[in-house]
Amino acid sequence: MRVPEACRGRPRDHIQDCAAAAAGVQVPAVDPVVVLVFAVVYLAMVLGHLPGLAIDRTGAALLGAIALVAARRISPHDAWVAIDVPTMALLLGLMVVSAQLRLGGFYSEVARRVAAAPVGPARLLAGVIALAGALSAVLANDVVCLAVTPVLAVGCLRRGLRPEPYLLALACAANVGSAATLIGNPQNMLIGQRLGLSFSGYLADALPPAVLGCAVTWAIIALLYRGRWHCPPVELEAEPTGFNRWQSGKGLAVVAVVVMVFLLAPVPREVVAPVVPCPQPYSYRNRIMVRSQWNKPEQKLNLGFVRGDCGLVEDVLTCAIAEPCWSSSARRPSRSL
């Protein structure tokens, strides 16, 4: 950036504001209300709740947004436009697939088999890292960690192994592995949607660093716990995983199809991911479902609720009433949205 003559010699953190002022660009002043709201919300994110209040991270973020709208720091229209609906649709679809695998017992079964593998501590650590990294690259990494952690911890204690290094490896590998694809975490989804990045192109660029990161994770943890792998065995009754081959097979089939379409078909990602089966034990009759549908005449994605009269998806922007998703055997109401 070329520094104007009048701005030379000023403190480094003031040069950009000075240059903008010299060019006739109005630099907005720091709003103390926005800074205060951001600080409070960020504090809740760090602590997991707001001190003295029964409000979690989600509630704190929602209250922060409401506070900014109420204080007229942002208009309701701008607040709504700031929500990236395609990214939310993509995230929703992938989380439904991940829930299908969790309810089918897939995560627990895979974790149990890895924990029971007849290998040494260092190789078991490598197996845990490979499992967490691979699953997190195509599924929600937080669900992977939550589902695998209890089964992995019990398996390690029954073998006389300290669970700490393996749980640490699980958490680190889930974060590193999720960076390998555009669907590994919400941040990648948002960046990919906004910039229109190619799934295969990003995979080719990000996969090598992700694999290297997993290798570095293994090396650091193996070095830290060298000679300290073992602990007295603990006899614990392993909880049944409730593995359902049919439900898990459906989830894996959907994951395979989604990834192949992302790689080979020129279809928007937010259109493909939400087209997944509703996870058991839920059904269309007892749950209000948010669905997506490609609006071909207008060339955009409708994300909203299914109309009871015709089965089409009414966009959430124009949807006044949330109608349930009626099954073919259920009686449909005569009124429309």
Concise structural overview:
55% of the residues lie in helices and 4% in strands. It has helices spanning 12-22, 32-47, 57-70, 76-81, 85-103, 106-115, 121-138, 141-158, 164-178, 186-195, 199-224, 245-264, 269-272, and strands at residues 291-295, 300-306, 313-315. A hairpin with a 6-residue loop joins strand 2 and strand 3 (313-315).
What does this structure look like?
The protein is mainly α and 337 residues long. It folds into 3 domains: 5-83, no CATH class; 86-247, no CATH class; 283-337, no CATH class. 55% of the residues lie in helices and 4% in strands. The protein has 13 helices and 3 strands. The protein has helices spanning 12-22, 32-47, 57-70, 76-81, 85-103, 106-115, 121-138, 141-158, 164-178, 186-195, 199-224, 245-264, 269-272; strands at 291-295, 300-306, 313-315. The chain has a 3-stranded antiparallel sheet with strand order 1-2-3, covered by helices on one side. A hairpin with a 4-residue loop joins β1 and β2. The longest helix has 26 residues, at 199-224. The model is unreliable at 274-290 and 316-337 (pLDDT under 50).
